[in-house]
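Section 3.1 - Work completed
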Amino acid sequence: MYKTNEEQEIISIDEFKNDWWEKVEYLLVDIREEEEIASAGGVAGAYNISMYEIPDKIEMAPTWIICLLACQDGSKSEQLVKYMKNNNYNNMFAIQGGVDSLVEAFPELRS
């Protein structure tokens, strides 16, 4: 299992590429609105839930697997990770640079 520091909130694209991609079990969560996904494109294999739905459904958040959150540019996912960690969900991390950086590094994830 990949070791993370509870204080760590962000996973860089290089860290994702070197330490996570096809090596560790995780859940990739796209927190963008449906309209954003429709206009900018989705991420293959990602679970989609709007960041605005999460506070009302926080009890449904998985605790048994590491969740990597991504918005379009990484800014909203970083905020959401702080919120989740403040609510004792220490298995949440943001992808630095969001979906933009992720699909640039891994074009095969664009859907």
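Second construct:
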Amino acid sequence: MPSRNATPTPITPPRVPIIDPRTGLIDRAWYMFFLSLFTTATEFIDSNIGSNAESLIASFDAELQALTQNVQTKPQLTDSTAELQDLSRVVKTQPLPPDLSEELESLGQAFATQPARLDLTAELQNLAQTVATLPQPVDTTPELVKQIEFAQLQNLCLGLLSQVAELQKQIDGLQSQPNATTNTFYGPVAYVEDFVGTGSQTVFTLTSIPIGINAIQVYINGVYQEKNTYTLVDATLTFSEAPPYTASIEVLYV
């Protein structure tokens, strides 16, 4: 760094100004000076580094051409921006994995404190020999089958006897009912009752109590009615829908 007390060397101003005041352009003397300086520098460059520069430029051109061919032969890169964005959203929405370091450490300590596994090879061999020496079981399959078949047959016979007894009770009850016309007691009696529909009435009362729902037949205007269209409780017959107005209702039962 120059000293602050140093005296600068005076530079003599040029005798000829760079710009010609008459033309407003560079003075001819200055132009010739710059031209000679440019010529001297060009000759120096051509004589010293001109050939090297040309070879260097040629090598650069060759490298650029090779690089261009290599790039052209490479497959085109696909735009995976959308896929990366989707993957980023999926990763952000995933819950963080739990930290299982403490659980794994405690599990390792538990295993470390466990006693060594016992060698039960000899005990298993002794057990196999004992099983091999046991007598073979007797095949009792035919006897068991016979016992099961007999028990099933016995249950079937008992069921039939129970049904016969129930049927006998029903027959005895029928024989004890009076006849609708003679009021005498003899066997089952068939009843026939007629009603007329009002269009709103659904409940009709019979004069006697039928044996059951299967011992009754109902006809409306001569058309047989299914069992699911009415119910029977004692002597009360109830239709799910009221028979039509002035409809002929005929009830047969025993």
